[in-house]
Write a structure and sequence with these properties.
Strand order of the largest sheet: 4-5-6-7-8-10-11-12
Oligomer: single chain
Helix content: 25-40%
Shape: elongated
Number of strands: 22
Largest sheet: 8 strands, parallel, barrel
Radius of gyration: 28 Å
């Protein structure tokens, strides 16, 4: 096979309408255009102006080999831009099953799939989690719940905050349970349900000390007495959320759990059935099994990330997300020349600079510039220069070393940008540490501009 520029020779198993073949067609068309319709001319000596002329030869009207719309639509998204995200559904299932093994038989597991399942894809994650034993789904917005319902999910769905009252008709139509913590919303919700002759199930959000949402723990019985008269209202559950379940210091956690238990005892003493009692997020699920109660809410752990510094001793988890790209350019940059905006990185010489089409608009944070490694041919390659909006660069050392093969990067070669790897630390946990943030933020930020592929 004849080599193309930069040594790229195409892919062995590509279909006929692949990018490699279109590249050949494009090159042929470009050569033709040079003959019939290109710019020609030269610079005027001593001047910054250029003289040029352009052929205005008309394009032939009898072209018959242009691809059809169907053929264009069949071009794989990974061949439209060489950057994509892979989600391992078996890792989601594994993490759910590992967690279920630790729970009492009567304890339900809610799969928290808000924020498009932390960037993993809500529907695919919901299906994988439910097939592994999850029996409830948690979302953050009405539209997130509607998306799951319209895709055919029939499990109970809870919105983990109280939506606007204007969304009540949607809640009832799609059978989505809201969190409730104001009497005005509770009555409006009940009235709308009663007008349709149906029930209005809800979960009572209780503020046990995080001070974000919820009825304050010592006002729960009073609140219920104000709204429970309505025949349509149905208290399906009570819950709170912990602010420090992942902290090695447990004082604030103990204060919150005491407040929550105090509220539940008061509810039962008033003769009210609290329904499904739940409070544990991922960290509390593993660190404080006595508070698993009737249901746990599995969030970050379901996606394979340890929710606290000490939970790796309690549970084995497998990250489900990995970010991939192909090299779009390779060049040898002479010593001392800069790379990328600001030229904060200067070539030390004897390196190739490789470009991949992933940037901060895709979720690769700019503040990680020069702080992370990618995996290329099972070797660590260092990201260099400022991460751009749509692209970034890494270097490959060309200096020979004993017993170590020199890498020879080519356009089209695959690179692991982020995710689990046996020998290279390019994990999302490591990225989060170097960005002084949490894995939640990074996985949520990897944008839909990079298509998701499930395996």
């Amino acid at each position: 096979m004849q080599d193309l520029p930069n040594g790229f020779t195409g892919f062995a198993n590509r279909p006929k309408n692949s990018v490699a073949n279109y590249r050949n067609a494009s090159a042929a068309n470009h050569a033709s255009s040079r003959q019939s319709g290109a710019f020609t001319g030269s610079a005027i000596k001593g001047s910054s102006n250029y003289q040029y002329s352009r052929s205005h030869a008309s394009h032939p009207s009898n072209i018959t080999d242009a691809p059809t719309k169907e053929e264009l639509a069949a071009i794989d998204e990974r061949d439209r831009r060489w950057a994509w995200v892979e989600i391992d559904r078996s890792a989601i299932q594994y993490n759910v099953m590992q967690t279920k093994r630790l729970l009492p038989n009567s304890c339900r597991l809610m799969a928290v799939v808000k924020a498009d399942a932390y960037g993993h894809g809500a529907l695919e994650v919901a299906k994988a989690a439910c097939s592994a034993g999850a029996s409830y789904l948690g979302v953050a917005t009405v539209d997130e719940g509607i998306e799951l319902r319209e895709a055919g999910m029939r499990e109970p769905i809870l919105i983990l905050s109280q939506p606007p009252a204007e969304a009540i008709p949607l809640l009832l139509y799609y059978q989505i349970r809201p969190a409730v913590y104001t009497s005005e919303f509770a009555i409006a919700y009940a009235e709308a349900a009663d007008a349709q002759g149906i029930k209005a199930p809800y979960h009572l959000a209780i503020n046990s000390g995080m001070n974000r949402i919820g009825v304050r723990f010592n006002n729960v019985v009073e609140f219920l007495s104000q709204v429970s008269f309505h025949r349509a209202l149905e208290l399906e559950g009570c819950f709170t959320h912990f602010a420090t379940a992942d902290s090695l210091e447990t004082l604030d956690f103990q204060i919150q759990i005491n407040h929550f238990v105090e509220a539940m005892r008061a509810v039962e003493a008033a003769g009210i059935n609290p329904g499904i009692v739940h409070c544990d997020n991922s960290a509390a699920t593993y660190r404080f099994p006595k508070t698993n109660f009737d249901m746990v809410r599995l969030g970050i752990a379901m996606y394979g990330y340890q929710p606290a510094p000490d939970t790796h001793r309690l549970i084995d988890l497998r990250p489900a997300m990995s970010v991939h790209a192909r090299i779009t350019n390779v060049m040898v940059v002479p010593m001392s020349e800069g790379v990328s905006y600001g030229m904060n990185y200067r070539s030390p010489g004897s390196v190739k600079i490789c470009t991949v089409p992933v940037g901060y608009a895709d979720g690769l944070m700019r503040l990680l510039s020069g702080k992370i490694d990618f995996a290329y041919q099972n070797r660590a390659v260092h990201q260099v220069g400022n991460i751009c909006m749509d692209q970034c660069m890494f270097e490959v050392d060309l200096r020979s070393r004993a017993n170590i093969k020199t890498l020879d990067p080519q356009i089209g070669d695959e690179v692991l940008i982020a995710g689990p790897h046996e020998t290279v630390d390019c994990s999302i946990d490591t990225m989060a540490n170097r960005a002084a943030t949490i894995p939640y933020e990074l996985v949520c930020n990897f944008s839909r501009r990079m298509p998701r592929f499930y395996r």
